[in-house]
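User: I'm putting together notes for a lab meeting next week and I want to include a structural view of one of the chains we've been expressing. I don't have a solved structure, so I'd like a prediction I can at least talk through. The sequence is below, exactly as it appears in our construct file.
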Amino acid sequence: MRQLTVLALSWAILAGTAAHSSTAATAEDTTDPHAAHRQMAENRQLQRSVIAYKVPELQLVRDDGHTVSLEHELDDGRAVVLNFIYTACTTICPLSSQVFSVLQGKLGAERSKVHLVSISIDPEQDTPARLRAYARQFHAGAGWQHYTGTPHESIVAQQAFGAYRGDKMSHLPLTLLRPAGGGPWVRLDGFASADDLLAEIRGFDSLAASR
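Assistant: Thanks for the context. Below is the predicted structure for the 211-residue chain, given as structure tokens.
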């Protein structure tokens, strides 16, 4: 029930400007830091691209308190689905996290083959304990980890994947996927659904089977 409540509230916030006139929307844009996010939610088109990102050599702190290599976490024999979040976010992040939660269920028996990775863009606030509490809200399973670190490490991780926008209030919905064993990343700009992500993962499986 908590998940559904968070999701419903997030959608209500994101869709809230739809009924306003263009004049009201223009006025809101000057005062509301989430105005751009709400406008984006009304246009849910995905932009898909394939990019050969280089994973930086970074040490991040996993939600269990262990310091780990980002390279190793993303190259452990599983397909990867990655996003950037922060726990105090009330717009994009609850939706993205809910999508990951739904994806876990849709993966079923194949869940152990996919690593869901959420990296905080607000590491000064997002301690491992806070990330664990956030993960519980979305019923994160064993294959979904949250990561934090220093502000520098967070920025470098964001920059490596073309996700850095200057500050957390300017972040955009983005999901990145890579097949097991490495290779180029699929980049989905916009609000991807669990079915969108599942289709990409299934495509990885089909590609591997055809080799």
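A couple of points you could mention at the meeting. Strands lie at 47-51, 59-62, 67-69, 79-85, 114-120, 144-148, 174-178, 185-189. The chain has one domain: 44-210.

User: Perfect, that's what I needed.
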